[in-house]
Write a structure and sequence with these properties.
Blueprint (H helix, E strand, L loop, with lengths): L2 E7 L3 H13 L3 E7 L13 E5 L9 H7 L8 E6 L2 H12 L4 E2 L3 E2 L7 H12 L1
Parallel strand pairs: 1-2, 1-3, 3-4, 4-5, 4-6
């Protein structure tokens, strides 16, 4: 049975591009990418690892996700957060804090551009 990974995004082109790079590097995983507005809490249950990315602080589509993460314990799960700016990374770190997921260093892709080797290196910190 393959391992499952979930990527939740704000749906912006730059964040979707990073999500695709992450998905492409997770060759041992069955990866699903959801925009936050289409995400449902049950989507997270089978995932061993999850990733969250957004371009701005507190996008309106993240309200359900924020609420859910404040009420669920994901201590056994690994998590990665990513963005194109520092402020959204601080926001994402804050919203995952209560769920106690095992979070790695955030991935900052300035101007929405990131090289695949950098994504691969970041993923090794999370997966291994």
């Amino acid at each position: 049975m393959s391992k499952k990974a979930l990527i939740i995004t704000d749906g912006t082109p730059s964040i979707e591009s990073i999500a695709q790079a992450i998905s492409g590097a997770l060759t041992d995983f069955n990866v699903k990418i959801y925009s936050a507005q289409k995400f449902e809490g049950t989507d997270l249950l089978p995932a061993e690892v999850f990733f969250i990315g957004c371009e701005e602080v507190s996008p309106s589509s993240f309200s359900y996700l924020e609420d859910m993460l404040s009420h669920i314990n994901l201590a056994s799960r690994k998590c990665g957060i990513f963005s194109v700016k520092n402020e959204p990374l601080k926001y994402l770190a804050k919203i995952i804090k209560d769920c106690e997921a095992d979070a790695a260093e955030p991935l900052l892709a300035k101007d929405g551009k990131i090289e695949q080797p950098a994504v691969n290196k970041w993923l090794k910190q999370i997966i291994n």
